Amino acid sequence: MVMMHQEGIGLRARVAELTRHPNTKAIAVGVATVALAPVILPLVKPVLKTTIKSGVTWYEKTKSALAETAESLADIAAEAKAEVQTETQNKALPPS
């Protein structure tokens, strides 16, 4: 601590100077993340795994539901087209 006073600038002044820089917070968060990742990752791994599994399940169910909806719409469109063709043919034929 004596050496800091000899240089003319103290630790508080250096910290205050660093905190004025706009990228300091981002750098601090990045360094903290890298330093803490090996400790935190094993703790949150089960939660992350469950979340990812839920997301995959939700994606598969949604994909299936969309495929069923598309198939239903295609069936409805085919039925409507067939009805239009039947009506057109009935109008073209003279009444018996």
TrEMBL record:
UniProt KW keywords: Membrane, Transmembrane, Transmembrane helix
Against InterPro entries, the record matches this protein to:
DUF5132
Q: Which domain of life is it from?
A: Bacteria
Asked if the keyword Membrane belongs to this entry, the reply reads yes
**TM spans (from-to):** 26-44
| Record protein name field | DUF5132 domain-containing protein
Species: Roseofilum halophilum BLCC-M91
